[in-house]
TrEMBL record:
InterPro entries: Acetyl_CoA_COase_a_su (IPR001095), ClpP/crotonase-like_dom_sf (IPR029045), COA_CT_C (IPR011763). It comes from the Bacteria. It is found in: Cytoplasm. Residues 37-291 form the CoA carboxyltransferase C-terminal domain. The lineage of its organism: Bacteria, Pseudomonadati, Bacteroidota, Saprospiria, Saprospirales. GO terms for cellular component: acetyl-CoA carboxylase complex. Belongs to the AccA family. PROSITE patterns: COA_CT_CTER (PS50989). It catalyses: N(6)-carboxybiotinyl-L-lysyl-[protein] + acetyl-CoA = N(6)-biotinyl-L-lysyl-[protein] + malonyl-CoA. This is Acetyl-coenzyme A carboxylase carboxyl transferase subunit alpha. It comes from Neolewinella marina.
């Protein structure tokens, strides 16, 4: 198990539990009561730690190396999934995966960021930072969904769109802007879920939808706490203060009306029980799709546009 800095009390308890179990397995002393006592302490300590997490601690949880990523959720949620590749223009971006899936008998198009589960795969997936061809691939799949009347699901988990010069040369900003323009008018339901990090245009490039949800220990912001800290204080040392000032947690986003729903995670975060998290997410995605499908296409598109128009209204001083 990988423990984060604020989880150190849990790590110590787990170490004690392992030692006690070893003594019990040797059969010299009956340690069952001690084991039960330690397990109770672990549960209570976990509840205490997770009862009042700071913004920075939720950022850390969203980046946990054992946290489930898009392909895991797809594997758990879909009876069958066929991945589709390429933007038919430049190439296939491995940071964004997408294809056609069967969600309990309903055909859907699923698109999401994929970070990679180890060092080699993270390099292969560019750490979930998509190039323009990734967003153009996503748009191609959304247009495919529109043609056949399939709902679209997007799973957001990125530290941001790739900022390299080659991405800018191939039109990074235009690709993201085009996605926003097309998604606003797409004539099929779009349900979005932030499953990890939701940073800047890299997230919103596949994040405009009829219903947007965030998992409990995720974040959604125009900039990461570290980058914000480096701009304001010329140092990363103030990232915790930056995380609080950015108001980037699921609770903050729901309060601002940016997202429509917060999806509860198992105690200890999504990584503590990935299968349970996948079941919960699947249930909420199906529920959201069904609700959007009750509307006519015209009403759905109008409501979607009005939803984003209402975010951050502009006022003019008299």
């Amino acid at each position: 198990m990988v423990f984060l800095e604020f989880e150190k009390p849990l790590e110590q308890l787990y170490e004690q539990l392992e030692k006690v179990k070893e003594v019990g397995e040797n059969g010299v002393v009956d340690m069952q009561s001690t084991i039960e006592e330690l397990e109770g302490k672990i549960k209570q300590t976990r509840r205490d730690i997770y009862a009042n997490l700071t913004g920075w601690q939720r950022v850390q949880l969203s980046r946990h190396p054992e946290r489930p990523y898009t392909l895991y959720y797809i594997e758990q949620m879909c009876r069958k999934f066929v991945e589709l590749h390429g933007d038919r223009c430049y190439g296939d971006d491995k940071a964004i995966v997408g294809g056609i899936g069967n969600l309990d008998g309903q055909t859907v198009v699923i698109i999401g960021h994929q970070k990679g589960v180890n060092t080699k795969m993270r390099q292969y997936r560019n750490f979930g930072m998509a190039n323009p061809e990734g967003y153009r691939k996503a748009l191609r799949l959304m247009k495919l969904a529109e043609r056949f009347g399939f709902p679209v699901i997007t799973l957001i988990d990125t530290p941001g769109a790739f900022p390299g010069i080659e991405a800018e040369e191939r039109g990074q900003a235009e690709a993201i802007a085009r996605n926003l323009f097309e998604m606003a008018q797409l004539r099929v339901p779009i349900v979005c879920a932030v499953i990890g990090e939701g940073a800047s245009g890299g997230a919103i490039g596949i994040g405009l939808g009829d219903h947007v949800m965030m998992l409990e220990n995720t974040w959604y912001s125009v900039i990461s706490p570290e980058s914000c800290s480096s701009i304001l204080w010329r140092s990363w040392d103030y990232k915790e203060q930056a995380a609080d000032a950015l108001k980037l947690t699921a609770e903050d986003m729901h309060g601002f009306g940016i997202v429509d729903e917060i999806v509860k995670e198992p105690h200890g975060g999504a990584h503590s029980s990935p299968e349970e998290m996948a079941k919960t997410l699947k249930r909420q995605l199906k529920k959201a799709i069904a609700a959007v499908q009750e509307k006519s296409v015209e009403q759905m598109v109008e409501d979607r546009i009005n939803k984003y128009v209402a975010i951050g209204p502009v006022t003019h001083a008299k």
